[in-house]
Write a structure and sequence with these properties.
- The protein is mostly helical.
- It has one domain.
- Helices cover about 40% and strands about 10% of the residues.
- It has a two-stranded parallel sheet with strand order 1-2.
- Helix 2 links the parallel strand 1 and strand 2.
- It is globular, with a radius of gyration of 13 Å.
């Protein structure tokens, strides 16, 4: 089994809690979210992954979770022990 670990700021995993009136900042984040989603998608294709696990908030679906649902891949939100 091959394991790929991508370290990422939790703010890039979903739009959860995102609220701003700053259009420039909003555009920046939209670009970052798009690039992160593309990165995860590319790595899934490159590795032939059939399952994605990530540590993320349970409040809102993440970009990786949505991608897995669209591609019929296994997904789990993994809790990391301190």
């Amino acid at each position: 089994m091959r394991v790929l670990i991508i370290g990422v700021d939790h703010h890039l995993q979903s739009r959860e809690g995102f609220c701003t009136n700053d259009e420039e900042y909003r555009a920046f984040l939209e670009g970052q979210w798009g690039r992160f989603t593309d990165l995860v998608s590319e790595r899934i294709r490159e590795t032939g992954a059939t399952f994605v696990g990530e540590e993320a908030s349970h409040k809102e679906a993440t970009f990786a979770q949505q991608l897995c649902e669209q591609c019929a891949l296994g997904y789990a939100n993994v809790e990391m022990a301190p």
